[in-house]
Known about the structure:
Elements: E1 4-6, H1 13-20, H2 23-26, H3 37-46, H4 51-54, E2 57-63, E3 66-78, E4 83-90, H5 99-115, E5 119-125, H6 129-137, E6 141-152, E7 155-165
Helix pairs in contact: 1-3
Amino acid sequence: MNVFLRALEPEDVDVLYAAENDVSHWKYSDRNQPYSKATLRNYIAHAHEDIYTAGQLRFVLAAPEHPFIGMVDLYNFSAMHHRAGVGLLIRKHYRKQGFGVQAIALLEAYVKAHLQLHQLYACFSEDNLPSKKLFEKMGFQKAGVKKDWIFHSGDYHHVLFYQKTL
């Protein structure tokens, strides 16, 4: 399938609303409350801001016949240190089809060509085995463990820190 990265569009608000407010994703983030559609519309309206100003950038992974397969984010962008964090969410019915690999590959090509980044990193819960498998497959290496970093469901969980030099 011919996939590509695109900017968020106003018509993405319903899919974004469903993804951001899916409580099963919250254990992998710092989120513990829902977003309103008004907040997400405002986010989309400002998503055009330059990564050098905003410090982050979100893309939608899409294909001609599939307008919203998932999202891939750059966050904690540092122009000084030429690095950024990577976040990825593939919608449930598109998982285990290789879209995560394609999203990371497209993102890597973008950051090399347009941002001249030297390094990408990803942080994810130790029990997030699909992310561990994906990032290792894409050449990211485990660089550390943040112990007891996330508190979820009455217990503390370790977060793995992976990085890749481009």
